[in-house]
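We now fix the convention by which a protein and its fold are recorded. These numbers are not coordinates but entries in a learned vocabulary of local backbone shapes. A record is reproduced here so that you can trace the correspondence yourselves:
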Amino acid sequence: MSLTESATNFDEDDEQIFGLFVMFKNPPKRYHKHEARMPYRFYHTMAPVNDESILFMDHVVTRAKLFVAEAQAIWAVAYLDKAFALPSVVEREDDAAHMIAWNKRRYPSNGELGHSAAFDSVPYADRLFDETGVASHRKKGWLGNMFAPIGPADFGKVWHEYLARRAKG
């Protein structure tokens, strides 16, 4: 993918985000230091889209660092085990472009690199868990899942669920 095509994807993602969240078009004045580095172009902020042999973990900015690190660890094991089918390279590139566009608008002061999840750590972890096919971290019923806290014991269940799935083949 050329840089021109990549910029087009970001523009399309921006328009999609503006369509859903109109208030992002004109954010309030804020401190902003321009980021000169290129944004991270990783699938789920960890996996290079064209190389399935390496991961770059734990650089996502979040308030629930341990929670996200555990979710990333489980996803990383499944990824390296090839326990789930990855989307196509184009779909992974689109996902990375969308993450960068979302971060740029959601976190206007520091989201240009596309690796922020300060207020989105639970949906981010849910995406990782959903892709690995585990669900034991979820609470019973939508109300419980929405408001009940997730604790360390829940992650133990996730590991057991993942290992049981892998043992079955």
In short: Residues 3-168 form one domain. Confidence is low (pLDDT under 50) at residues 1-8. The helical segments are 3-20, 65-81, 89-106, 121-132, 141-147, 152-168. The first helix runs from residue 3 to 20.
